[in-house]
Specification:
It is a single chain. By secondary structure, this protein is of the alpha/beta class. It is built from 4 helices and 7 strands; from the N terminus they run E-H-E-H-E-E-H-E-H-E-E. A 7-stranded mixed β-sheet has the order 3-2-1-4-5-7-6, with helices on both faces. Helix 3 packs across helix 4. The longest helix is centred in the middle third of the chain and has 14 residues. The protein is globular. The chain starts with 11 loop residues before the first strand and ends with a strand.
Length: about 160
């Protein structure tokens, strides 16, 4: 997913459902003057041992603590101003929201915080068609990758761009 972005190094990045920080840390390694923020509700239901403290420990071990911060935040009601982020990433997160309207609200929130010229990359194994429709209805240019059979679970990536 990170290779789907042409990085300048100055981006503001949001990782929605950061979990243990894989995408956030990978993005931080590509940043020079930019900054990353990882949000999660830190549920252990879908990721055992999920916690802000464990993710912070991973960030510290990887040496990117000066480039990122973590917040407890719900994807359905992001606590950021409109047009804050150049890049929004999310991997295997949005499907965990149990109701369809909640998943749509998360997509609308991602669209809201995306800057003009910004890109959202949302990877999931289900509901990607719904994410695509919600982003399009929010005025974003949207595409969806073919099913990636090299991952488990098999994933698609929805790419949404704000013009």
């Amino acid at each position: 997913m990170l290779n789907m972005v042409t990085w300048r190094g100055s981006e503001r990045v949001l990782d929605v459902g950061t979990g243990r920080g894989l995408l956030l840390i990978g993005a931080a390694r590509r940043l020079t003057t930019g900054h990353g923020t990882g949000i999660d509700i830190w549920s252990t239901k879908d990721l055992s041992g999920n916690s802000l403290e464990r993710t912070q420990a991973n960030i510290d071990v990887e040496g990117v603590q000066d480039k990122v911060d973590l917040k407890s935040d719900d994807a359905r009601k992001l606590n950021f101003q409109d047009a804050t982020f150049d890049i929004v990433l999310s991997n295997l997160c949005i499907h965990n929201i149990p109701e369809e309207e909640g998943r749509a609200q998360a997509c609308r929130e991602i669209a809201r915080v995306l800057k003009p010229g910004g890109i959202a990359l949302i990877s999931d194994f289900i509901n990607t068609g719904s994410y695509q429709k919600t982003f399009a209805a929010a005025g974003l240019k949207v595409s969806r990758s073919p099913l990636n059979l090299l991952t488990y679970p098999w994933l698609r990536v929805v790419r949404a761009e704000r013009s």
